[in-house]
User: What shape does this take?
Amino acid sequence: MLAGIQIENIPQVNSHQTFTHSIEQSTQKLVAEKQKSDLLLSRMLPLPVLRSLRAQRAVPAEAFDAVTIFFSDIVGFTSISASSTPMEVINMLNMLYRLFDEKITHYDVYKVETIGDAYMVVSGLPQRNGNRHASEIADMSLSLLRSLEGACVPHRPGAPLMIRAGVNTGPCVAGVVGTTMPRYCLFGDTINTASRMESTGEAMKIHISYTTKIALDEIGNYEFETRGPVNVAGKGCMETYWLVGKVGDFRSESPRGPQLQDYHNNLMELLIRS
Assistant: This one.
């Protein structure tokens, strides 16, 4: 006894258990951070490419005989940006991209990149899918347009938010460019033509090339309208079409499907919570 306290009853700190617990916590945090890193990288590079880079193997450029490429941009984006604050523009793009990113998960497509208000998606690479690339992009395109029906610019109630969409089918080359921040890039005239289909299109319409129409005709059940000859910069006069619908067999996404208003979150709130 010492001052009425029994020394033998004082809890003894087990330094070994404390050290083990600390190591376990650190390991769990490390695993969690690695998972976040893996998720981020998987959104920047295709998984097959990512695996090769992790194995410290070179990733050679690869040629693809046929892929289908989708481009879209926001109608009137320049004027919207000129009369909006930077935060309002970023919030609008964040809402739109979050909606599109969720919608495209239902299709066999790969999101290549977003530049400003432009959104680029491809099917048929890095994993080949036979002749399904045209139908995957077509179904996705119709779905994206449906999700924007009645949508408005978030900070301008009553001002419609509309996109132009362009699609083209053909060969291309894809490969990793850069080392500090590697990017999976696509090259070839097929990409340029897809971009021209978008830029010469019209609001809330899907403008497709003749090669895409032929690919979709082989699959069947798609509805088109002939647009007629269009003078395309760098390509000359081209016969193009509007993809207007599909007869039955729509991809099941959800009973309702997400809409733009479902993503009406302020960007700062998202940054604070992340």
